Amino acid sequence: MKIVTTIQEMQQQMKACRSQGKTVGFVPTMGYLHEGHITLLKEARKDNDVVVLSVFVNPLQFGPNEDFDRYPRDIARDEKMAKEAGVDILFYPSVEEMYPRPLSVQVIVKERVDVLCGKSRPGHFDGVATVLTKLFHIVMPTRAYFGMKDAQQVAVVDGLIRDFNFPIELVAVPTVREADGLAKSSRNVYLSPEERKEAPALYRALQKAQEAIKNGEREPAAIRDLVIDYIQTNTNGVIDYVEVYSYPELKPVAPLSGKIIIAIAVRFTNARLIDNITVDVESSY
Ligand code: PAF
To answer: For position 285, what pLDDT does the model report?
Structure first.
């Protein structure tokens, strides 16, 4: 595995790959790799000749009250895990390398951001879209891999790729789950034993909603109520949101039709869990 820290060297490496006609799978991350990232890397490994992983904690996507400095970092561990996952090139630039001077141009995301988690993180997706624009230009991948656990980020990247005509295939990888259905997350360890037992009810609530759609329910409010009721009956968590939108547009849709997302965020004592499910309404019978 090659470790590259400069943009110039990365561009040279990628130019060489392209001139040899190789396909490139790209997994952008902020490091501190976990199982979710490894799943993305494995998918990229299956589909492409060359796998590129970037590790860059992007200051632009942190709000003033979100602690950029305290974001966990462990590049030695990331290197080891990347090597084991079959990564060919690890791109690990410094902040100075990526942002040598204040930006004179920034990407502003105008849609798909004022809902779900984006509502409480103004500017976050502008930072994500800006760094991805730079990374896509530097790496010029054939395919880019993102986890559906963060479905709103996938929706924003879909808009970025379409609107800016990046010749990149977006691969949205399904959420990895524990045997009992709980979406894997580094935050699950903060659940108390009792909360850990309750937490799979989040996914069960989403499955109940899917079942209701399959049985003909088309009112988003009824789906929302069903999910809220199931979570409140089966957990002590406090619901942050339960939202139903078209996907990936993230617009209200009533009656339900096309592809939709049901997304939830629930607070437990020391952990806020998110999960979602996408449903093709017409083909859910
Ligand atoms: O999901 C992440 O880790 C980040 O938002 C990303 C896509 C690497 C951009 O910094």
So the answer is: 62
